[in-house]
Amino acid sequence: MEWLIERFQSAPERIAFIHEDREVSYGGVVSSIDVFYQRVQAAVIQRGQTVVVLGDYSPEVFCMIMALCRNGSIVIPLTRSSVVEESVALAVSGCEWYVEFDAAGRDATITHRGLKSDNALLNEFRQRGTPGMVLFSSGSTGKPKGILHDFNQVTEKFRKQRNPVVAIPFLMIDHFGGINTILAITSSLGTVVTVADRSVPNICAAIEKYKVELLPATPSFLTLMMASNLQNQYDLSSLKRITYGTEVMPQSTLDRVRAQFPGVDLLQTYGLSEVGVLRSQSREDGSLWVRVGGEGFQTKVVDGVLWIKSQYAMVGYLNAPSEFDADGWFNTQDQVEVDGDYFRILGRVTDLINVAGQKVYPSEVESVILEMDNVQDVAVFGEKHAMLGNIVVAKVVVDTPETADSLKKRIRQECLAHLAPFKVPAKVILAEGPLHSTRQKKIRRA
């Protein structure tokens, strides 16, 4: 990874981070990496030892991770709102050292924990002598999985330098997409604009203030933005590109975003922690069809499910059997339709609702309901039913008070006009709180 630090050294005056109104140049980043590396050496953190780094995006957190990787450590990035409980994560990965940043993300305390993990994969990986990174799945479909990556291999994808941009890293630093975003920005000598509270007003304010050019977001966040109409209360004219991923985008939300940002490129991204983030190209017709792949990736579809083979794949799970087949192909569990070189992501196999043998994809129903008046957000999911196997349930947040009976009647009429009868929600729940997690991702459950 020395090539990446050398790239930072080539543009010492360029702004690398804007963190809480504080600008840090790439020259400052290189200096901070050196300072943290000296602290790592002074603490006698050895190559191959596991080190938890607790913090969110800040120049110093990034520089500490880089210093630890330069040291050959195995880094476990966590935030105070991580998708997995810290005790669960540490039981899987071990924690020989613990680096905790303060709330401002500037000062770090290094503590020796001595919690070793006699994990066969970790022990084997240490023989490589290369830096590692452990990220955790959310565990939404079961036990959280520890995903081990070779950090040198992760960064290699960014060796080819691209045009610099000013961007907000939307996904958090303990998420593969977050790591991918911050490496993509810094490897191109762009500017990372950090936003501690990823609410719609704060994101819009940061775009206006710092002339942000790239916004990588989730469909849930963009749905909230369109419902709030806040995009019209800020000057967002600096935006050149909006990317969206991690979950299926409702067509109705995409249509609204296109109408609101006619001069902005909209790009659907696709990636998984296990295989990395693929290069993508959205079709120009405003649909959800996307071409994915690029150098180092191969794709195929088997029985309607997308499989990926990647040069940037994980080393393996720390606490689960490998899900790669003998030829290195990974089953994404994503149902897709195919049109030539393009795919349309329908949803995860685990999100699929089976109604009397008929398939219902939640995003398809959500897209119709989001077009209705007085609907701010909706989450569609299945509920067990003795006769049908499952029924479709819609959990809805409304703009102004409305009875559940009235809303259910309107939803039924609207859905029957656009969908097959078995896709129409049999049950409607009025929700008071948000239907997304702190990571702006849809929560589909009662």
What count of helical segments does DSSP give? Answer: 12
Structural classification: alpha/beta
The shape is: globular
Largest sheet: 7 strands, mixed
Note the beta-strand portion.
25-35%
Q: Give the integer mean of the pLDDT values.
A: 91
In what order do the strands lie side by side in the largest sheet? 6-5-3-4-7-8-19
CATH architectural grouping of the domain at 2-155: 3-Layer(aba) Sandwich
Rg calc: 22 Å
What's the CATH superfamily of the domain at 2-155, by name? ANL, N-terminal domain
| Low-confidence spans | none
CATH class of the domain at 2-155: Alpha Beta
Q: What distance separates the N and C termini? A: 45 Å
CATH topology of the domain at 2-155: Rossmann fold
Instruction: Summarize the amount of helix as a percent range.
Output: 25-40%
Give the beta-strand count: 26
GO molecular function, one term: medium-chain fatty acid-CoA ligase activity
Keywords: Ligase
InterPro entries: AMP-bd_C, AMP-bd_C_sf, AMP-binding_CS, AMP-dep_synth/lig_dom, ANL_N_sf
Protein name: Acyl-CoA synthetase (AMP-forming)/AMP-acid ligase II
3D structure, described in words:
Belongs to the ATP-dependent AMP-binding enzyme family. The chain is of the alpha/beta class. Among the domains are: 2-155, Rossmann fold (3-Layer(aba) Sandwich), CATH 3.40.50.12780; 352-430, ANL, C-terminal domain (GMP Synthetase, Chain A, domain 3, 2-Layer Sandwich), CATH 3.30.300. 28% of the residues lie in helices and 31% in strands. The chain is built from twelve helices and 26 strands. The protein has helices at 2-9, 26-42, 59-70, 86-93, 120-126, 151-156, 176-187, 200-210, 219-228, 251-260, 362-370, 404-418; strands at residues 15-19, 22-25, 50-54, 74-78, 95-101, 108-115, 132-136, 146-150, 166-167, 191-194, 214-217, 241-244, 265-268, 270-272, 276-282, 289-293, 297-302, 305-310, 316-317, 330-339, 342-348, 353-355, 358-360, 375-385, 389-398, 427-430. The strands form six sheets. A seven-stranded mixed sheet has the order 6-5-3-4-7-8-19, sandwiched between helices. Helix 2 crosses helix 3. The radius of gyration is 22 Å and the shape is globular. It starts with a helix and ends in a 16-residue tail after the last strand.
